[in-house]
Specification:
- Strand 3 and strand 4 form a beta hairpin.
- This protein has helices at about 60-70, 90-110, 125-140, 160-170; strands at about 45-50, 55-60, 75-80, 85-90, 115-120, 145-150, 175-185, 190-195.
- It is rod-shaped and about 85 Å long.
- The strands form two sheets. Strands 2-1-4-3 form a four-stranded mixed beta sheet. It has a four-stranded mixed beta sheet with strand order 5-6-8-7, with helices on one face.
- The chain has about 200 residues and is α/β, with parallel strands linked by helices.
- The two termini are about 50 Å apart.
- The chain contains four helices and eight strands, in the order E-E-H-E-E-H-E-H-E-H-E-E.
- Residues about 15-30 have low confidence and may be disordered.
């Protein structure tokens, strides 16, 4: 069996008062708490990990005493392990950091990048192919593509030509994109929206 390490508390910071009971009171654990903490950990012994302790297997009473000595919480990180893996840390701060991390992940996942590509109603093949190549790159990066034909002055008379151009563009990108909205005239612009196909 693995030898249980001996814990010796470090020196108190200069000017610190005598050790006493913890000032803050943690709320009782409820079903929404993702971790067992302190008195709610039922295992007889736990494996402590982290920078503020000597890693190893400790009796639960000793692990709780170490957490109390450091004025922190004993938090069960991996309950499925035998013995469970615990860390000694500030649980409220830990929960805040976890929630912040989840929000950042969610925000990153929900952030949609839209790249715009502009055509004229009489775009030549060289310019068309150049923009087609750029659109493929954008779609492969996961961005949506907003392609539009801009009608300047009397060129609005060629709106059917612009629609044909956008439909050709969508057809040429069929391997990489799905049409999110068909060509629609908005003021002097005819717009089509393309979204990347899921891999």
């Amino acid at each position: 069996m693995e030898k249980k390490p001996h814990f010796t508390p470090g020196p108190r910071p200069q000017g610190a008062g005598p050790r006493g009971p913890r000032d803050r009171r943690l709320p009782d654990r409820n079903a929404k708490d993702p971790n067992n903490i302190n008195e709610h950990i039922r295992a007889r012994e736990v494996r402590l990990v982290g920078d503020n302790v000597t890693p190893g297997i400790y009796p639960i009473q000793q692990a709780r005493a170490i957490a109390e000595e450091l004025e922190l919480d004993l938090v069960e990180i991996t309950a499925q392990s035998d013995p469970p893996v615990c860390k000694i840390l500030d649980y409220q701060k830990y929960l805040y950091q976890q929630k912040k991390k989840q929000k950042e992940i969610k925000a990153k996942a929900s952030k949609v990048v839209v790249k715009e590509i502009r055509f004229g109603p009489q775009t030549d093949d060289h310019d068309y192919n150049f923009k087609l190549k750029h659109a493929i790159g954008f779609l492969q990066e996961g961005a949506k593509v907003k392609a539009y034909v801009f009608f300047k002055g009397r060129s609005i008379l060629f709106k059917e030509q612009g629609e044909v151009l956008l439909l050709r563009f969508a057809n040429d990108l069929e391997e990489y994109a799905k049409v999110e909205s068909m060509p629609l005239l908005e003021g002097k612009r005819m717009i089509i929206m393309l979204a990347p196909k899921k891999k």
